[in-house]
């Protein structure tokens, strides 16, 4: 029997999508955006850009900031390319301000904030960092103790 070597680029888009859906959206974007034209197009599909969580969640429920090199790549290369496709952002307290200032998110439907005090979260959306029109939002949901304090804003 003869063995053949199949490379990632040899797989059809449908098979690549099935494989990549097993990864976190952040990992797909970080790993594939800018690699080459085909993988770039696949990584920027709405499957991977609609809901973006930009933190690390441990198995014991703690939430950690992404390492600076990963965040730097998101700010300089990834967010400017996908900002119009993002509908939901999951952020943690150490990188919230930097991510919100990185670009405009015109289609943002909701945001989840982790490891943040409610007062600080409300302060983020009073014009100091970005404009938050509360009249467009149905409710503000707070879940203390789930992921060390989670606040969700949903439009």
UniProtKB/TrEMBL annotation:
It comes from the Eukaryota. InterPro entries: F-box-like_dom_sf, F-box_dom. Residues 5-52 form the F-box domain. Transmembrane segments: none annotated. This is F-box domain-containing protein. It comes from Rotaria magnacalcarata. The lineage of its organism: Eukaryota, Metazoa, Spiralia, Gnathifera, Rotifera.
